[in-house]
Amino acid sequence: MLKLQRQVLPTLQQVVAPRHLAAQHIQSRTIFQMWNGWMRAVWNRVDSSRLEMVGKDRLAAEWLLKLGGAVEMNLPPSGSKWYRNYNGLPWLGETNRGGKPNKEAQLLKVEAKGIEITDSGLTHLQGLSFVNEVTLNDTEFITNAAVETLASLHACNKIDLRGTSLNDLEALLKLPALSELVVDPNAVSEALQEQFKARGVAVITR
After folding, report:
1. 136 and 111 in contact (C-beta within 8 Å)?
2. Residues sharing a CB contact under 8 Å with residue 66, sequence separation 6 or more, in sequence order
């Protein structure tokens, strides 16, 4: 004689709870993304009052360091030096006790690898006179709109854009000092590579 196996039906709570938890997870993730986006915008905002106090080069260096980047600066009387920590930046009189920041600062090199800089944040570099090298690797929040800022760096001789989405780089042809452009494969068309070559710019794909 066959025995009928008892069928255990799930309760309403067992059916609804997983769906409810999934909805909560999606809502929490959305809120986190919104919060993260807002914070990213705040950290990339140009502080006009701070700009007036410390000057463009120093402000750009502070912005990058706060986001986790690195800079080489010429800061009298310390001279040229790499900085990888915001608190390591010297102040006037080499003290953080009451001294005003040095407005004689010269930003020389920019290194941004895997940090959350944006197109608007990159305008900190707009028109800086002494920047000679820019490295933007794996920076997912910058777009082709950032090329306009890079094209304003007339003293820049090397730009490294590996790991970015930038592929509309024609504006960089007008940089008089540019000698080396490092990009991902296929980021620059063969025709544009020839134009860079004609201007003495080596296009390196890695």
Report:
1. no
2. 43, 86
- The two three-digit tokens of residue 12, written as one number: 């309403």
pLDDT tens, position by position, 93-128: 444 445 566 667 899 999 999 999 999 999 999 999
Residues 73 and 108 sit within 8 Å (Cβ to Cβ): yes
Token pair in block for residue 74: 């010429």
Dihedral (Cα; 58, 59, 63, 69), 10-degree rounding? -20
Q: What is the DSSP letter of 15?
A: H
Q: Is the separation of the CB atoms in 141 and 116 below 8 Å?
A: yes
Token output for 94: 């080499």
pLDDT digits (tens, 9 = 90+) for 50-103: 888 888 999 999 999 999 999 999 987 778 999 999 988 876 444 444 556 666
Q: Are the C-beta atoms of 153 and 175 separated by less than 8 Å?
A: yes
In degrees and rounded to multiples of 5, residue 11 shows phi and psi of: -75, 165
Continuous segment of H or E residues that includes residue 84:
none
Bridge partner residues of 75 (DSSP):
79
Task: State phi, psi for 14 to the nearest 5 degrees.
Answer: -70, -30
Nearest to 153 by CA among 179, 133, 170: 133
User: With 0-12 CB in 10 A as exposed, 13-18 as middle and 19+ as buried, what is 20?
Assistant: exposed
Phi, psi of 184 (to 5 degrees): -75, 155
